[in-house]
Automatic annotation (TrEMBL):
InterPro entries registered for this protein in UniProt: GH43_arabinanases, Glyco_hydro_43, Glyco_hydro_43_endo_a_Ara-ase, Glyco_hydro_beta-prop_sf
Keyword Signal: yes
A Pfam family matched in the record: Glyco_hydro_43
Pathway: Glycan metabolism; L-arabinan degradation
Source taxonomy: Bacteria, Bacillati, Actinomycetota, Actinomycetes, Kitasatosporales
Keyword line: Glycosidase, Hydrolase, Signal
Signal peptide positions on this chain: 1-19
Listed PANTHER family: ARABINAN ENDO-1,5-ALPHA-L-ARABINOSIDASE (PTHR43301), ARABINAN ENDO-1,5-ALPHA-L-ARABINOSIDASE A-RELATED (PTHR43301:SF3)
Name the record gives this protein: Arabinan endo-1,5-alpha-L-arabinosidase
Similarity comment: family membership: Belongs to the glycosyl hydrolase 43 family.
């Protein structure tokens, strides 16, 4: 990770201030990936990302990564209704009740005819997932988009799924813990955040007494022309309202900066958060300005001493 001097400088920032950002921590090997989500398993770390039946990487130490194929061994029969390319996106993996749960999106670029699927596994390893079908879907008539899922299991056992992009912004639904699907008795779609110029890729976690909603803003997937950046808001309730460090609502364009382009590290986003033995990690992709804009894995620890997440 970044050196001690850089970390100290970061901790002196007021929340939301613009200053030099830390470089990604050291990762090696097969680190080309989009929209990464990482989990610690009994046999090391498993990392999943967009495309190619959900790209998979494994690592024994969270530093050296190897290409491990994909989460799935083949396309699922229902994918073609939402993606002619049958290329799933933006997985979110977590472990609950003895099972690895992977939520993911099926869509086409620029379309809101989309669906969020669920797959489960006993090991969390590539090729071991069994698809459980559709969790939530949207059509061309919808004013929001069912992509980029992020699961939060609350302290009281309630399951929430944040998701969405562009259109009217980031949404949330309640899930049934027994199935991992949308709760039949709680069907409200909650609005969490919106922004002009693009918002997507939520990552929702609880830290202390607050719920923190990280979002990717701007444009993804354009190499060195990407404008992705990560901002965050917090709330005392999972359903909001979420506000930034200056009190601005995330429904009105607010958001405290966590990471944005700096030096060769362009368009950071597609983020997730992993709680590991040494702290919480921000896991994301960026485009390498010194390697023809290749997408690569970024990992930084988060410091919470200010009450807001600061990457270091």
């Amino acid at each position: 990770m970044a050196g001690a001097a850089a970390a100290l400088a970061l901790l002196l920032w007021p929340p939301g201030a613009t200053a030099a950002y830390p470089n990604p921590g050291l990762v090696t090997g097969d680190i080309g990936i989009h929209d990464p989500s990482m989990i610690r398993t009994d046999s090391g770390y498993a990392l999943y990302g967009s495309n190619n039946l959900l790209d998979a990487r494994t690592s024994p130490d969270r530093t050296a990564f190897s290409n491990a194929g994909s989460a799935f061994t083949g396309p699922q029969s229902w994918w073609s209704r939402y993606s002619p390319e049958q290329s799933p996106w933006a997985p979110d993996i977590s472990y609950h009740n003895g099972t690895y749960w992977m939520y993911y999106a099926v869509s086409s670029f620029g379309s809101n005819t989309s669906a969020i699927g669920l797959a489960t596994s006993d090991t969390g390893l590539p090729g071991s997932f069994t698809d459980q079908g559709i969790v939530h879907s949207t059509s061309s008539d919808s004013d929001y988009n069912a992509i980029d899922p992020s699961l939060l299991v609350d302290d009281d056992g309630t399951w929430w799924l944040a998701f969405g992009s562009w259109w009217s912004g980031i949404k949330m639904i309640q899930l049934d813990p027994a199935t991992g699907k949308q709760h039949p008795d709680h069907t409200e779609v909650h609005s969490l955040a919106s922004a002009e110029g693009g918002i997507e890729g939520p990552a929702l976690i609880k830290h202390g007494d607050h719920y923190y909603l990280f979002n990717s803003y701007g444009t993804c997937c354009a190499g060195t022309d990407s404008t992705y950046h990560i901002k965050v808001g917090r709330s005392t309730s999972p359903t909001g309202p979420y506000a930034d460090a200056d009190g601005r609502s995330l429904l009105a364009g607010g958001g405290t900066f966590v990471l944005e382009s700096h030096g060769r590290f362009i368009g950071p986003g597609g983020q997730s958060v992993l709680s590991d033995t040494d702290g919480d990690l921000l896991v994301y992709h960026y485009y390498d300005g010194e390697d023809n804009g290749a997408p690569k894995l970024g990992v930084n620890l988060l410091d919470w001493s200010s009450g807001w997440p600061v990457a270091y």
